[in-house]
Amino acid sequence: MKYIIEKNDSSPAYLQLYRQVRSYIVKGIYPYGCKLPSKRIIADEVGVSTVTVEHAYALLCDEGYIEARQRSGYFVIFRTDDGFVSPSDKYSLHTPLTSHHTSTSPEFPFSVLTKTMRGVISDFGEAILDKSPNSGCIELREAIRQYLARSRGITAETQQIIIGSGSEYLYSLIVELLGRKRIYAIEAPSYKKIEQVYRSCDVRYEMLPLGSDGIRSTALWDTDADILHITPYRSFPSGVTATASKRHEYLRWAEKADRYIVEDDFESEFSISKKPEETLFSHTTKDNVIYMNTFSKTVSSSLRVGYMVLPKHLVSLFNEKLGFYSCTVPTFIQYVLAELILGGDFERHINRVRRKKRKEINGK
What we know:
Blueprint: H1 13-26, H2 39-46, H3 50-62, E1 66-69, E2 73-76, H4 110-124, H5 138-151, E3 161-164, H6 167-178, E4 183-188, H7 192-200, E5 204-211, E6 214-215, H8 217-222, E7 227-230, H9 244-253, E8 260-264, E9 289-294, E10 306-309, H10 315-322, H11 331-342, H12 345-362
Helix pairs in contact: 1-3, 2-3, 4-11, 5-11, 6-7
C-alpha cells in the first residue's frame, strides 16, 4: 500500500498517516479481520519513525477502526457491512453514567473567565447592551467556525451556525425547521429532556434500543423515522459510545432521500483520545447532518449557551421560517465566549482537562 507524507502539509506526519490508513479501512482495502502491516514495515516504506506509526495506529485504536492484539499486531475491526449482518448485535451497555448535561463539569479557571469579562466590558463598552443579531453575534459564530475547522474537522460557513440558549431550545428549533409531521428517532435510553422536548412539540417519535456499540442495527433499519437524533460520543445514561463502524452505519442509513441526522456532540471535547472525536458532520457527503454542541461542560452550565451547525442547503429555509426569532443569549456573554475561543483560553482549558484525564487513567 502506498503512503505519502506531504512535507508542506501543516498536519503532523502521524495524522497524515492516520487519515490514509483510515481511508483504506473505510473503503474496504483493508477489510474486517485483516492484519495491518507492522509498524516497522510502514516506517521503512514512508521514511518515518516507528513512533510516528505507533501514534497513527493508536488513534485508529481509540476510534474503533483497529485493535492491537498482544504479540500478533494490529487487526481491522471496522465492518463496512454493519447494518446488514450483525451477529454480535447484543444489548450490552457500558457502565451507566451518573449524569449527562447536569454532571459535574471540569472547572474552567474562574480567574480567566472574570479577566475576560472585564476585558470585554472595557473593549466593547456599551455595545455589550446591543441586541444580538437573531442567529447570534458574528464574533461568536466566526470564532466557533474557526474552532470547529481546526479542532473537529468541520468545514462550515459562518451563516450555518446558529446560537441559542442551551440544547433544549435548539431541539425545538430543529422541530420547527424540519417539521412536525416527520417521525423522529432517539436512543433508548436517552437523555430525558430530548424525549420531553419532542413530546412537548407534539411530534411522533420512536425509541431505538442501544447495544454496546450504538443503536441496534435491527432497530435502526426497521424504524419508520426519517430524523435520527443521536449522541454518538457518550449517550446518557448508558455511557455507550458509538463505534467507528456504527457511525458509518448511521451515515448509510441517512443516505435515503430526505433523511437527517441530529448529531448531539455534547462533552466530546473531553475525550481522552489523542485527537478529537470524529464527527458525523465532517464525514457526511449528503449535507444532511445537523451538528449540535454547548458550552455547558467546557465553560459553565450557568451560561446556557449552545449552538448548531446547519447543513448548507437548510440555511435559507431556516432564515425564511425561523429567522425572525430573536437570539436568546445576551450579547455580553457571546462576546466573552468569542474572546475565550479566539484568545486560546478555551482550547487550553480543554487540553489541560484531557491531559489530566489521560494521566488519571494511565495511573501517572
